[in-house]
Design goal:
The protein has 9 helices and 13 strands. By secondary structure, the chain is an alpha+beta fold. Helix 5 runs antiparallel to helix 6.
Length: 413
């Protein structure tokens, strides 16, 4: 059984998305592990700093060797911190913004090693509130029973570590998005070049046998006097149809010429040809505005009708009907063409998917008909095509929107 290319593409996209999610999750988990360990390390250093500060305050008679040692331990703390007493009065701080603290140092008579610090209450109140929200305080009990409460903030390194994986993943996502867009654009450009080359070569190859068939038909009519034979006339129609198909392929890759056409006549002419080559159990009906004119390229628009009507006919398993209704939207100078069938319908989740290359529900289908239809309507006719409504088991309605001839302005090239 042939693998549906659309389903295969969706499968790979899903697997790549899962792989990307695993990488992102692993990166976040590992970074959180590092942040947790670094946070524990900073709290331990804050505790050591608090104890060393207490000893300097509580034991002013320490000799110079120990005083120097305690000062080295205290000054080694890298995180901002504040010490308060039980009344929430600030006793000492470390690592705050020196341009905001307005420090004035007054020597203490009882302990020259410990300075009494004066500070700006507003700034310190804000900093203390911030520290209280970040971490639980470290409680240090003094020798006289008094308690100190040490509050601290994360270091700049720890803060950067917390946000680093998100910044990293964002940058990677932006890079991948740009790379995908560029490579997707290159791939589409290459596909278009292949498609245009293949289409034009097909038109060229069809030219010779079509000309030969036309000549053979003329010889048959002359030899057997069969100018009015219905079989010969049907063969002529099929040969002319081949000419139209070749003309379609020759126009791929170039801007088609749009001309004003009566939509009802164009559709009726094609339906008369198409229904003769479809099951007699399918009834066709064309109705609506018979005078509305739109800007069309008739050969390409016939191709659009052929693709949509083929899908409608294939959706009807036994007997059914296909209705084509033409209406003119005078408010926006648009022509609406609604093509409805009584087939098996399309699930709402597939309304957009049916136009993607490779999507098909038929075992022998290639999933290109509606893709080409959308391209011809949107790129060549500056119109729209979409699934207007559908219900599984009851049928589908496609809507085509074309520009009215009354307000058409040729595109500037």
């Amino acid at each position: 059984m042939r693998m549906n290319p659309y389903q295969n593409s969706q499968k790979w996209k899903f697997l790549l998305l899962i792989f990307a999610a695993i990488i992102a999750t692993a990166s976040l988990l590992y970074t959180n592990f590092l942040v947790k360990n670094l946070s524990i390390s900073e709290r331990t250093r804050a505790e050591v700093w608090a104890i060393s500060t207490r000893n300097i305050y509580a034991m002013p008679d320490l000799d110079d060797q120990f005083i120097t040692y305690y000062y080295q331990i205290r000054d080694s703390l890298a995180v901002p911190a504040i010490i308060t007493n039980e009344k929430d009065s600030i006793i000492y701080w470390k690592g705050l913004d020196t341009t905001r603290t307005n420090i004035r140092i007054e020597e203490s008579k009882s302990s020259p090693a410990m300075a009494k610090l004066r500070y700006d209450p507003g700034y310190f109140k804000t900093e203390l509130a911030s520290m209280k929200n970040r971490h639980d305080p470290i409680v240090v009990e003094l020798y006289g029973g008094e308690k100190w409460f040490i509050y601290y903030k994360d270091s700049l390194l720890l803060t950067q570590m917390r946000i680093f994986p998100y910044v990293q993943l964002t940058l990677i996502a932006i890079f991948l998005g740009i790379a995908y867009s560029v490579f997707n654009s290159i791939r589409k450009s290459e596909q278009n070049q292949v498609w245009v080359g293949l289409a034009k070569e097909t038109a060229h190859q069809l030219g010779t046998p079509i000309s030969s068939l036309m000549a053979w038909l003329e010889l048959v009519k002359a030899k057997f006097g069969a100018d009015d034979d219905p079989l010969i006339l049907e063969m002529e129609m099929d040969v002319k149809r081949l000419e139209i198909v070749a003309d379609r392929f020759s126009k791929i890759g170039s801007r088609p010429v749009l001309q004003s056409h009566v939509v009802y006549k164009v559709i009726t002419d094609f339906v008369n040809y198409f229904k003769a080559r479809t099951s007699d159990k399918i009834i066709f009906n064309v109705s609506g505005d018979m005078r509305a004119e739109a800007m069309l390229n008739a050969p390409l628009f016939d191709w659009v009708l052929e693709n949509v009507l083929k899908n409608a006919a294939n959706a009807i398993e036994h007997a059914g009907r296909i209705d084509i209704v033409i209406t003119e939207n005078l408010a926006k100078d648009e022509i609406f063409i609604d093509i409805s069938d009584t087939g098996k319908g399309i699930p709402r989740a597939k309304f957009d998917t049916v136009f993607q290359a490779g999507y098909t529900t038929r075992k022998r289908g290639w999933g290109l008909g509606l893709t080409l239809t959308k391209r011809m309507i949107e790129n060549y006719h500056n119109g729209q095509i979409f699934v207007k409504e559908s219900e599984v088991g009851k049928g589908t309605t496609f809507r085509i929107i074309l520009n009215s001839s009354l307000t058409y302005e040729p595109a500037k090239i």
